[in-house]
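Tip: read the tokens left to right.
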């Protein structure tokens, strides 16, 4: 028994339970690391877009269109980034300078973008060390583009804490519709 406790306490262990809610798949992830337990849910969203994946990619990550679709989350949302390069820092901010600090974990143009969220920004000050952000630090947000016969499927999957689950279940479908609208414009 003590050997099992040792493994759970000192080696990363992941337990996952999944269920479907409306059009989203929700998974609860229990991470056991270094005597701490992090609880993430995972939300997955999918939308089919009648446009090539290169156009959808540009809508997602070019500044002008990024500001349009992310306004669904917060009017005036924008990103401060070094051209979305892998390994670089990204600040996802609202007009008041509040938001999140993240890194680009992966960038495969026209296919996949992944962010690892590290902390939050308030009044221009980054916090990656407080107990509040440690609860969700390391959470991922992933964008996958899949070419289909009719265009592109865009899949979003993200780790989420219970505190923000309802907000994202309500808001992500609206953001996806905005991405679809912008991508399908001539």
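Filled-in amino acids:
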């Amino acid at each position: 028994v003590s050997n099992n406790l040792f493994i759970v306490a000192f080696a990363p262990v992941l337990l996952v339970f999944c269920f479907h809610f409306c059009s989203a798949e929700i998974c609860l992830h229990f991470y056991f690391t270094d005597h701490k337990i992090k609880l993430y849910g995972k939300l997955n969203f999918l939308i089919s877009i009648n446009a090539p994946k290169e156009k959808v990619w540009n809508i997602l990550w070019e500044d002008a269109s990024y500001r349009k679709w992310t306004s669904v989350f917060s009017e005036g949302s924008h990103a401060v980034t070094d051209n979305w390069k892998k390994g670089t820092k990204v600040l996802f901010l609202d007009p008041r300078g509040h938001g999140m600090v993240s890194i680009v974990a992966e960038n495969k143009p026209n296919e996949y973008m992944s962010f690892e969220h590290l902390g939050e920004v308030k009044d221009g000050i980054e916090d990656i060390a407080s107990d509040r952000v440690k609860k969700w630090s390391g959470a991922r947000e992933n964008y996958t583009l899949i070419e289909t016969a009719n265009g592109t499927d865009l899949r979003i999957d993200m780790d989420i804490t219970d505190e923000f689950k309802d907000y994202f279940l309500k808001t992500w479908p609206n953001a996806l519709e905005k991405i679809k609208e912008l991508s399908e414009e001539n």
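The radius of gyration is 18 Å. Strands lie at 13-21, 24-33, 36-49, 78-81, 89-93, 99-108, 112-122, 125-127, 140-148, 151-160.
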